[in-house]
Structure formats: structure tokens, C-alpha cells
From TrEMBL:
Gene Ontology BP annotations: coenzyme A biosynthetic process
Location relative to the cell: Cytoplasm
Superkingdom in the source lineage: Bacteria
Organism encoding this protein: Finegoldia magna (strain ATCC 29328 / DSM 20472 / WAL 2508)
Predominant location: cytoplasm
Gene: coaE
Protein name according to UniProt: Dephospho-CoA kinase
Gene Ontology molecular functions: ATP binding; dephospho-CoA kinase activity
Broad enzyme group: transferase
Annotated Gene Ontology cellular component terms: cytoplasm
Pathway(s) per entry: Cofactor biosynthesis; coenzyme A biosynthesis; CoA from (R)-pantothenate: step 5/5
Known function: Catalyzes the phosphorylation of the 3'-hydroxyl group of dephosphocoenzyme A to form coenzyme A.
Length: 207
């Protein structure tokens, strides 16, 4: 089996982080600097579309209550359902992760750039699967203190405290896993500070 990246002389860098860590801001800045970023959340939207195999598998597994008035999968309804149950969340991951990674592989093959960033929300949870298909050269993690992330979720999503905590508790705590990453970007202050850190990291890496 061909491992994408290494065989095509492409450098692959993963950017990951927990909810409300600032990962999306980091990846937006990387795009602004002219680099290719493949967002796995965007690919997830694609595989949820009506008519896909996954669309019907999700309805079979979780019921028609996850659909909106247009019979599209309502990601908010689905998220609310699975984030309250680790068993259901694991089942959702089993159904989606392989399909997502295979679509990422196709995107990487099509890209002409020899440096590609992958924006992955749940990288550690799917790392074995990612490594099976993609040769990752570096992994960067964005972290922020738990209390700060809780407040960001409350402010951004208009969630109550308990809902914000439930979302955070549904994920591995990447802040406790920083020794497993090549680069750690701490985001406990302002967005401008975070952008400065990204610029400094890109300069230091000579990308």
C-alpha cells in the first residue's frame, strides 16, 4: 500500500487542537501566508450529503431525528446526540473516519504544492488511521487552558456552562499530551498574539 506524502515527496504537517483552542485561527493564518490547508471538517460536510453511503448509514444508526426539515443531516442535532454518549461518539467515529481519510488522500494527490497542512480536530483519536494512509512529517498542536476554552465556547456558541463542559469532556485533553507533538502553540491570550506566534513558527521552520 502506498503511503501518501513520503512517496510523492510532499511534506505533510498536521495542525490539531481541542475545541476552542484556536486551531481554526491558526489554520486561517497559515492560509493567509499562502500555504495549502486541507480542512477535514469541510470534507466531513461533504460525506454527510444526501445520497452518500454514509448518509444512509447514519440514519440507520442514529435515526431520522438527526435530519432537518429538508432531510439533510443536521450536524448540530447529531453532535448534541453523540456528545452526550461516549458510546455513540465512538460509533460515529467508526463510521466516518476511514471515509474522511480516504478523501483527504485524494485531495493530497491532486495538490501541486509540495507542502500541505492538514487541519484535524481529533488527530490523536484517529492517528493510527491517519498514519496508515498518510506520512505525517510534523504535527503541531494548539492548546489553551481549560477554563479559557470553556468561556470561549460559552461566548462563541451561546452555550450554557454545562453544555460547554460536556463538549470539552467528550475529547481527549491535548494539553496533557503535548509531549507527543513536534510543535506546541499556546493560545491563552489574544488573537493577535496567536497570529504572531504562527508567523514566528513559520519563519523558524523556514517553510
Amino acid at each position: 500500500m502506498q503511503i501518501i506524502g513520503m512517496m510523492q515527496n510532499k511534506k505533510i504537517i498536521v495542525v490539531c487542537g481541542n475545541i476552542a483552542s484556536g486551531k481554526s485561527t491558526v489554520c486561517r493564518r497559515i492560509r493567509e501566508k499562502g500555504f495549502v490547508v486541507i480542512d477535514l471538517d469541510e470534507i466531513t460536510h461533504q460525506i454527510y450529503e444526501q445520497g452518500t453511503d454514509l448518509y444512509y448509514k447514519l440514519i440507520d444508526e442514529f435515526g431520522k431525528e438527526i435530519l432537518d426539515e429538508n432531510s439533510d443531516i443536521d450536524r448540530k442535532k447529531l453532535s448534541k446526540l453523540v456528545f452526550n454518549s461516549k458510546t455513540l461518539l465512538k460509533k460515529l467515529e467508526e463510521l466516518t473516519h476511514t471515509d474522511i481519510i480516504l478523501r483527504v488522500v485524494k485531495r493530497i494527490k491532486k495538490e501541486k504544492s509540495d507542502l500541505i497542512f492538514l487541519e484535524i480536530s481529533m488527530y490523536l483519536e484517529s492517528k493510527n488511521l491517519v498514519d496508515k494512509y498518510i506520512n505525517v512529517d510534523e504535527d503541531w498542536v494548539v492548546v489553551a487552558d481549560r477554563d479559557i476554552r470553556i468561556q470561549r465556547i460559552i461566548d462563541r456558541n451561546n452555550f450554557d456552562y454545562d453544555t460547554a463542559v460536556t463538549r470539552i469532556n467528550s475529547q481527549l485533553d491535548y494539553e496533557k499530551k503535548i509531549s507527543e507533538f513536534d510543535e506546541v502553540i499556546v493560545n491563552n491570550t489574544t488573537e493577535s498574539d496567536l497570529i504572531l506566534k504562527v508567523d514566528e513558527l513559520i519563519d523558524r521552520e523556514k517553510l
